[in-house]
Amino acid sequence: MTIKKLGPEELLALDKFSVDEGNPHIIVDKVICAKCSARECLIVCPARCYRLKNDEVNFEYVGCLECGTCRVMCSGKGVTSWNFPGASFGVTFRCS
Ligand code: SF4
Ligand code: SF4
How many domains does the chain fold into? Predict the structure, then answer.
């Protein structure tokens, strides 16, 4: 049997998401984030849900892997609410 090594992007592409439209499980306060200089979220999120655009941190909960890293690492308290998605929503991890 041959085992194919996959990179992070390929592994992420295997995951399946059921999105609870209009009901984000993580709330990020843009006003607070505007005052944050550390911006750990841009570095630590494995799914790149936090992105910098025009020097502003944008957050998109679609694609979140529910790892909780941003909740722990956010030093500026911009992550004002963090919950797991409701039943039947969120990520399903799949192996190749
Ligand atoms: S819980 Fe993990 S994957 Fe989801 S936004 Fe936070 S760091 Fe990213
Ligand atoms: S680390 Fe926290 S407060 Fe700072 S930009 Fe990211 S989410 Fe906002």
Answer: 1
